[in-house]
Amino acid sequence: MNLLLLFDYIGTFVFAISGTLTAANKRLDFFGATMIGFVTAVGGGSLRDMMLGDTPVAWMRDLNYFWLIIAGVLVTIAFGKVVMTLKKTLFLFDTIGIAVFTIIGLKKALMMGINIPLAVMMGLASAVVGGVIRDTLCNELPLIFHREIYATACIAGALVYLLLNFLGMNEHACEIATVGSIITIRLIAVRFDIALPKIELKE
Amino acid sequence: MNLLLLFDYIGTFVFAISGTLTAANKRLDFFGATMIGFVTAVGGGSLRDMMLGDTPVAWMRDLNYFWLIIAGVLVTIAFGKVVMTLKKTLFLFDTIGIAVFTIIGLKKALMMGINIPLAVMMGLASAVVGGVIRDTLCNELPLIFHREIYATACIAGALVYLLLNFLGMNEHACEIATVGSIITIRLIAVRFDIALPKIELKE
Amino acid sequence: MNLLLLFDYIGTFVFAISGTLTAANKRLDFFGATMIGFVTAVGGGSLRDMMLGDTPVAWMRDLNYFWLIIAGVLVTIAFGKVVMTLKKTLFLFDTIGIAVFTIIGLKKALMMGINIPLAVMMGLASAVVGGVIRDTLCNELPLIFHREIYATACIAGALVYLLLNFLGMNEHACEIATVGSIITIRLIAVRFDIALPKIELKE
């Protein structure tokens, strides 16, 4: 089985859990939670595919995404408190998720002949847009805009991928190194509480 | 004249009214109200068509939608208080609207070869996304995520449609039965104040 | 060099500045500001292209947009206070921006065979949707829905363009007259504090 696809499935499942947890905090009902779980998991990839014109969007062509998301929502509803004690596991899988979504978005855009900086942006969008829509629908300022190194880790990972690829490393090794570097950057950022500076307008 | 198209027009008109009423509550100006009327009426179908890749999106190919929405906005602005006293009529037409949008989304997705569960989701998206965008733009937690049986009625209707279709019932009868069952479910839910349980994370 | 393209570049640059200023007000971090700068600048055109089915969306096919947005964000972060003292200049360029985005959206839709009223809407969407997404992501009621003549100026400009075009005026003159009339309307509206009436529901 394709490594990237396996990681993609894991990321989808974990993103659905993260969406459901946010929805539970807002005291949404069962349907609301399922819907937030869905948009968190597929929002980024859908926007990427709609912007690139690769339609129907990816998750509509493989039913596994659907069942993984439903499973993520149900697991969270059934074992919510337990799920929340698994914070570190979730954090790790979530980081694997954004790493893989970044790589998938980047590769797809490059394959369609998009310029490198824009392909990096498509990778980033695949990884972060789901969470942005989740927070916006839940009527909150998107987490990613004001907390923690997150997008920065994705961009760094994308650059690692491009560099190793340019140096001729084989595809699988590139992917693993990218996922590894994104995890490392994010772990270091959280461990040492590193965040991007808030913007203050200067004279 | 095609029955589904007629219902589609009614739904579009009523959704434009619902958008304008929400905008008036937020004390938006005339343009704001018109824009909210538009996104409420066409948001769901547009997202569906962009995700499926059936572009230009449906309402750009038939000018009637445009005029129906303008009419819905103007009627609401001119006779707002009267419109609001027609609550039961609006409720009925709104329910017809979501029923028809569900059927249209479902049928279109099936015709494009999308898997059944995902086609049901496309039906649901056609019906509810307009209202979600309306509430998000008006800076409120989307109504549909925390109040009333609504999406559930759409999903049940979609299943009724699929079942009757599978049993070989003719197209028109399927559509009428679907609309009927969605109306019935929603009426019962409102009458007996049935709502989905809010999510509470369990041990 | 193409006049419309030059104005398009200016508009993109100024929209990125406006997004970054809003983000700074919300005390977002560097990444958040960049992302808001991007969606403000490309949101309208992206939605237009996704709805029309002209993909990959325009800004993914010309790397200049990317660098102009990055430049707009960096300039704002580096010289924020200075940028804010240039209010009148920003206002002028912003108005040029919406004027040009309106023309581009209108022309593109007409070329794709979209009906005139809907093509005007595509022009309007190109001009205003970026700002709407900016405000929604920053968790505020979109400015455009309740303040100032803005969309109205775009629509009036689109009609001027269509009229002059219909009268056989040459393309360049049409464009300049359109930009001029949008600037004039907006200046007059701001100078005399003209706004659309807020909606109040009538008996």
UniProtKB/TrEMBL annotation, chains A, B, C:
One of its GO terms (cellular component) is plasma membrane. Keywords: Cell membrane, Membrane, Transmembrane, Transmembrane helix. InterPro entries: Gly_transporter (IPR005115). The keyword Cell membrane applies. It is a multi-pass membrane protein. Its main location: membrane. It is found in: Cell membrane. Residues 6-79, 92-164 form the Glycine transporter domain. The chain crosses the membrane at residues 6-23, 28-45, 65-83, 90-110, 116-137, 149-170. Belongs to the UPF0126 family. PANTHER family: INNER MEMBRANE PROTEIN, UPF0126 INNER MEMBRANE PROTEIN YADS-RELATED. This is Putative membrane protein YeiH. It comes from Mangrovibacterium marinum. The lineage of its organism: Bacteria, Pseudomonadati, Bacteroidota, Bacteroidia, Marinilabiliales.
